Amino acid sequence: xxxxxxxxxxxxxxxxxxxxxxxxxxxxxxxxxxxxxxxxxxxxxxxxxxxxxxxxxxxxxxxxxxxxxxxxxxxxxxxxxxxxxxxxxxxxxxxxxxxxxxxxxxxxxxxxxxxxxxxxxxxxxxxxxxxxxxxxxxxxxxxxxxxxxxxxxxxxxxxxxxxxxxxxxxxxxxxxxxxxxxxxxxxxxxxxxxxxxxxxxxxxxxxx
Length: 208
Fold this sequence. Notes:
The chain is α+β, with helices and mostly antiparallel strands. The protein has helices at 2-33, 70-85, 88-101, 106-131, 136-146, 165-173, 180-207; strands spanning 37-40, 43-46, 53-55, 61-65, 160-161. A hairpin with a 5-residue loop joins strand 3 (53-55) and strand 4 (61-65).
């Protein structure tokens, strides 16, 4: 009983620390965003940030570094708008809450960071699909000019920002639109895996 109580206490403290850190970081970032200048729709510009990002859940807003213009601006806006269309700004905070509850499990940490990285790569690929593969070099140059792989100001883990620039540029330059049969096979594999996990869980419950 003593060890169980001790373990519960450590778990609760760890969860509280992560939640408190994320809330304080979000509040600190929100205060800095008050000085952002509205340009159009839900798009704002702010001097002093080195990377564009999406912030907010119910009313997500796109924040761009001051001075971005032309084709570079169109690429970045398309990327951030894709995040919002896919509700990534809702999924990521939910995933972070799961991470807070399972902070002691290293696999959950790995899953969270890989999920975030995959979201960025997927949005990059969506931009290429919409605007064409001819923009690969220009799009890569835009990412390189915006960031050297830094995280968001304030260390807040919830917004989307330009991160893992090296991996993203490599993915962009090597990107090829997948054939239809590849997509179909991938969907079937995922569906089979989900069905197998559901059936496996049901069997275990019946045995127990």
